[in-house]
Each structure stands twice: as C-alpha cells, then as structure tokens.
Design a protein that fits this description.
It holds the Pfam family Peptidase_S9_N. The protein is of the alpha+beta class and 714 residues long. The chain is built from 14 helices and 36 strands.
C-alpha cells in the first residue's frame, strides 16, 4: 500500500556522505566470510524465486550441510569478534557498568496465596533465583521450594517456568528447558520430603494446572518437530506419562492451546485461540476425571476470554465490538445467546482485559495509547480509576492470586520511573508503595526528561512517539538517537524503565519508541491497520517517525539508529531496504526476515499459527504481497547502513537460518563499505542467554557497536 508523504519536502541523504562520522572508528580491514551459494527454487504461482542459501536450514534436519552451517556461523562470529576487537575492553566496561546497577542480593515483594507468602530471592554473584515461601506470616521459617542456581549448574542454558503449587500446598509442578527451544520437561516435587516424583513429562509447554484432588495434573503436550501445542493431557500422579489421557486435541493448526484455572479455583479451563477467533472448554475442578464442556463454540472472526465470578462467568469479547466489551452469562447457560452486556464497546477506549476478585472487578483499558486501571465494586457498581499522573507510562495488574481480597497488587513504571510495586486498597483507594527497583550507584529521575510526541504519517494518521533523554542533552543534527519499535501481533510497546538504557542516555543518546501500527497502543483498529495486506503501514509509520525526528532537529541520518527484534526485526529488514539512507546504523535482533519461505514451510515451528497475522502464501495474493516487503527477497545492489544482526542457534520462534541467509545475501549485494556483522549465540534461542546477567553481554555488544559509530570510547 503506497501512499503519498504529506511533508512538503523530503530530504534524501546518502549512506556514505558523512565522512567525519565514518572516521570516528577505524574498523579492522578483515575479510568477511563468504557463504556458498546453491541454487534452490522456492517460487510458486508461476513466480521464479531462487534461494541460494536454502541449505543453511540443515542444522536441525541433520542434512548433509549441517556441519557446514555451524562452521559458517562460527566464521561470522569470529569476523564480528575481529571487527569489534578494539571495543572489547569497552564492552567489558559497559557490562560491568550495567551489571553494577543491578542489586545482586535482592528479594521480590511477597505474594500471599492459599495460606503462604511466596517470593523469590537472589544471591550476590548468582545468575538465577531461589523460589521460597513462608507459612502464614513473613516471620515464619523460610521454606526453599527450588534453588535454580543449584539446578542450573553444568547447563549453558537453563530455564525453569510454570511454578504451580497443588491446592493442598504439598506438591510443586514446574517446567525445565535446558536447550532454549521452549520444549519443557514437567517435574513434580514433593514439598514435604523435598524429593522429585518420578513422573517427568516431556515434551510439553512449561505450564500445568492441578485438579482440586491434588493428584491430577493437566498440561499442554507439544509436537517435537513443529513445537505446536497440539493436545491437552491429563496425568495422574504415580502413573506412566506415556499413558496420559488426551482430554482435548486441537485440529486447527492455526490455534494455540493451553490449560489453566479460574481465579476462584472452581473451574479448569482449556483455551484454544488464533489471531481472529477463540474457544474455551470448562470443567469442574473438583471433578478432574470428568469431561470438558464447550463454553461457546468458536465463531468466525470472534475472540472471547472468560473468568468466573461468584454466580456468573465474565466474558471479554470483540463480537460486534471492535475495541471489545464486557459481558456476563449464567454458570449453566454459557452460549452466546445468553451473554448480557456489562460494559459496552467504545470507539476511543480498548478494553484489554479483566482481573476478577470476589467483590471487585479490575478492568484494564487503553485510551490515547495509555493504560488505565478501572475499579468496579460488584456489590454496588461504584467505579473509579487509579491515578498515575505521567505523560507516558506503563501500569498493569500484577500477581493477584487471592480471589477474596480487597487489595490489588499493580506495577507502575515509566521511561524515568523504575519498576514500582504498589498495593492498592480498592475499597478505601489508599495505596502503598511496597518496593521500587533499586538502581545501585544512585539514580535521580529528576535528571532525565520524558516526552510524548506525535508524528504525522503519510496517510495523515498521528503516530505516538515516547522518548527519554538526560537533562542537558542538546537536540540537534549531531545528537545520537536510537529509535525502537515492534509493530506486530497487537503487542503494545509501552514506555517502561530500563537501567541498562542509562548507559546510552548518560552518553548523550536520546531513546525513542515509535508506537507504530501493528501494535495495539491506540486501540484494536491500530492492530488491524498493521497486519495482512496493511502490513506496510508498520514500515511506513517507522520511517515517518524517523523523518519527523529529523525534521524536528532531534537528530540526523548521520546519528540516527534503529532497533527491533523478532517481528520487529522484520521491520528493521524492511526499513533497511525501503530507506537505507535514513540510518547510521541498524540493530536487528533475532529478525524474522525470510517471510515467504517460512510461511510456506508448515514444518517450521509456529508457521501455521501465524497465517492470520501475515497470510498464507499458498494464496497467490498473499504470496505476491509478502514477497513485495520480505527483507530477504528485496535485498538489492545498493548502499546499506551499518548493521548488527543477532540470532540464537536454538531459536524456536525465528529460526537461526533466517538472519544467517539474510546477512549472506546482503554481503553479496551491498555496494557500500559500511560494516555488516552477524552474531550467533551458539547456546541459546529466541530470548538470548539465560541468567540474570549474561544477556547484558549482548546488550554491551549492541551499545559498543553504536558507540563505535559515534566515536564514543568510554
């Protein structure tokens, strides 16, 4: 979708015109790796499409080129190390600086659930956490449930998730992944004896849910190859997991499924959801051997979500409601014909979700791009909003497991306010700050400025931009600025604090978030206008935000940087092709850049779940449109900006070979002398390194890359 830019004049910059900046850092004259090219036809619908690096996908299939793949990735890592050799000491200093802001010996705010206070704590020098609880009182003796530091010993990667205590408080189920492919083994620990029960369940997602009999465990079984969540199974403790009963099998490969429990603890719920429709099944948690009943059969283009409150179910749905509405229905009549409206849909307010209490309802809404918490007393329908008072922020309901409670635990943060945990009395409206993230070494929010701006996109739509910088930072053509965005799946990128970001701000950078279409910051339509055949709005919005900042003298192309990851990495690939002249440097983290090939291969994890987001290229119209913006397919012989691309060998979301192929093709086409670096974490996946501190090494590399281009050496 090409539309006219409304600016009266557009200044076009050359990628290589800023010689004074290019001389800031003398890159070593190393020769980059050259990947072998093998013709492989991947076109369809009569279109010729040669993928000369298709062989790079061989690692997981253990094909004839699998060893060659590893050798190539290692060669790229060695090249990156050589090119960044002079920044190595600076990277180490940055790592120490960012790590030094983190309180190593720390403890979370305890959460009360079913008679116990639960919390995590961390020890100095340790990468992981200890999961603990105290019975009845915070003065009681500590009971350590899991010592993840000890559990992770000997593992380059370790992830423990899905902590789930049985109703009688005696058993703990949790999932472990030691590869970073998001395939978990579920273990059950006897909290009275400290021993593991021998019922290890694999492969599964990390989460699970207990029946109220304390011996039945429901979990999501995954496909070992595609990693799709395909079945919900029921496991009885002491039996062979191979004989677990399938209580639900999903036939639609575009749906994600999962299992949980209502906050009231009365119902087990199976959720099946795609981008455009959903379906729920319910079961009395006191009767785990029973059959699940469909709440409401899936409806075309209708999403709904449910929870239980007292004598009714609450339903959040977009049925005849673009921005969603709240409905209620009797416990024994859950079909759509019985749904009764509680909160109508509104044009200017997105109803994002609810948190249910016995006497209160917390409604999360989004208005003008900002989150609001609306409190309703269900006994008298009295309502009020929690006041926050900053121009750009993030606020959300946190862990609130107790159904019969008058206190709401919520988290508040902004670009200048560290994560702050509050307890809010929904009856008296009194709030108590329980904990604010401590920044070691001192941090004064008054030394930083946050702003909310609006850029005009080429179709006249106003795109919000949140930005932060240190007081005294001059805004002019020489000011370095990092512009970040995501723009997919309706995921909103709200303004939040980052202590690592201070290393940028304290060195004169401005940091900005472009709230582009494809997210959901401005309501559901914001998402609808950035997907499928409207996907290019995401790319144009980002470019138009950049031009707005340049025109406003916040920065210039000589000092403007762009960053995005995963689907945001697709954005980085697209803008590098569309407007390479705008950026001094681009950081593409685990980027989704080979859209057509991936969406044609249903054996790749998550492909079938994504058809409603990107389209199915087996349809000629989608194939043609995807190919028109897919970064890999649109690499041309022209100048590209400096680029740092990262990936993980075990990435289950965006396979390593997408960024690897993209970099290889860029190397053979780019006509400039700018640097192009690929860094592969050979031991991690989509989320990068595990542990509290290891990821900081990846951040330090990214910062050092930009600092090198800016001539900043300390």
């Amino acid at each position: 979708m090409r539309i006219i830019l409304p600016f009266l004049a557009v200044i076009i910059f050359s990628c290589n015109q800023n010689k004074d900046v290019n001389e800031a850092y003398q890159w070593p004259g190393a020769t980059p790796p050259v990947a072998e090219m093998k013709d492989h036809e991947t076109g369809m619908h009569g279109d010729k499409r040669n993928d000369e690096y298709y062989w790079m996908a061989d690692f997981f299939s253990k094909g004839p080129d699998s060893n060659k793949v590893v050798d190539y990735l290692k060669a790229e890592n060695a090249y990156t190390d050589t090119m960044m050799a002079d920044t190595k000491k600076f990277e180490e200093d940055l790592f120490a600086e960012m790590k030094g802001r983190i309180k190593e010996k720390d403890e979370s705010v305890p959460v009360f659930s079913n008679g116990y206070w639960y919390y995590t704590r961390s020890e100095e020098g340790q990468q992981y956490f200890k999961y603990c609880r105290k019975k009845g009182s915070l003065d009681a003796k500590e009971e350590m449930l899991l010592d993840v530091d000890k559990m992770a010993e000997g593992h380059p990667y370790y992830s423990a998730v899905g902590f789930n205590v049985s109703p009688d408080n005696k058993l703990l189920a949790y999932g472990v992944d030691t590869v970073s492919r998001r395939q978990y083994t579920i273990y059950v620990k006897n909290l009275e004896t400290g021993e593991l029960i021998k019922d290890a369940i694999f492969p599964a997602s990390g989460g699970s849910e207990w029946g109220n009999d304390n011996k039945t465990l429901f979990y999501t079984a995954t496909n070992p190859k595609t990693l799709l969540s395909e079945k919900i199974k029921r496991h009885t403790l002491g039996t062979d997991p191979k004989k677990d009963v399938v209580v639900y099998a999903e036939k639609d490969k575009s749906n994600y499924i999962g299992v949980g429990k209502t906050k009231s603890e009365k119902y087990i719920i199976i959720a099946s959801s795609a981008t455009m429709s959903s379906e729920y099944r319910i079961l009395d948690a006191d009767k785990p051997e029973g059959d699940f009943e469909v709440f409401q059969p899936r409806m075309k283009n209708v999403l709904y979500d449910i929870d239980h409150q007292n004598d009714k179910f609450l339903v959040v749905t977009n049925k005849d409601a673009l921005n969603f509405k709240l409905m209620e229905t009797p416990l024994n009549n859950t079909g759509v014909e019985h749904w009764k409206e509680v909160i109508p849909t509104r044009k200017d307010v997105l109803l994002e979700g609810i948190d249910v209490f016995k006497d209160f309802l917390v409604i999360t809404e989004r208005k003008n791009g900002l989150l609001q918490l609306r409190i309703r007393n269900v006994n008298n329908n009295a309502e009020h909003y929690v006041d926050f008072g900053e121009p750009a922020y993030t606020a959300y309901a946190s862990s609130n497991p107790e159904y019969d409670s008058k206190n709401l635990r919520y988290v508040y943060t902004s670009l200048t306010t560290p994560n702050s945990v509050y307890d809010y009395n929904m009856e008296t409206k009194g709030k108590e700050l329980k904990k604010r993230q401590e920044v070691i070494g001192g941090y004064n929010p008054e030394e930083y400025v946050t702003e909310r701006l609006y850029a005009e996109a080429r179709d006249g739509v106003k795109i919000p931009i949140s930005l932060v910088y240190k007081k005294g930072t001059e805004k002019n053509e020489k000011t370095p600025l990092l512009l970040y965005a995501y723009g997919s799946y309706g995921n909103s990128m709200d303004a939040a604090f980052s202590s690592t970001r201070l290393s940028l701000l304290d060195r004169g950078f401005i940091y900005a978030i472009a709230h582009v279409r494809g997210g959901q910051e401005m309501g559901r339509q914001w998402y609808e206008d950035g997907k499928l055949f409207k996907k290019k709005n995401t790319f144009f919005d980002f470019i138009d935000c950049a031009e707005y900042l340049i025109k406003g003298k916040f920065t210039s192309p000589a000092h403007l940087y762009a960053e995005g990851g995963s689907a945001g990495g697709l954005l980085m690939g697209a803008i590098s092709n569309l407007r390479p002249d705008l950026w001094r440097g681009i950081i593409a983290d685990v980027p989704f850049v080979d859209v057509v090939t991936t969406m044609l291969d249903e054996s790749i994890p998550l492909t079938t779940n994504e058809f409603d987001e990107w389209g199915n290229p087996k349809n000629k119209e989608f194939y043609t449109f995807m190919k028109s913006y897919s970064p890999y397919d649109n690499v041309e012989k022209k100048a590209y900006p400096n680029m740092l691309v990262t990936t993980g060998l075990h990435d289950s979301q965006v396979q390593y070979f997408e960024p690897a192929k993209w970099v290889a093709r860029l190397r053979t086409h780019k006509t400039d002398k700018n640097v192009l670096l690929l860094k592969t974490n050979m031991e991690a996946g989509h989320g990068g390194a595990s542990g509290r501190f290891e990821y900081l090494k990846e951040v330090a590399l990214q910062f050092a890359f930009m600092f090198a281009l800016e001539g900043i050496r300390e």
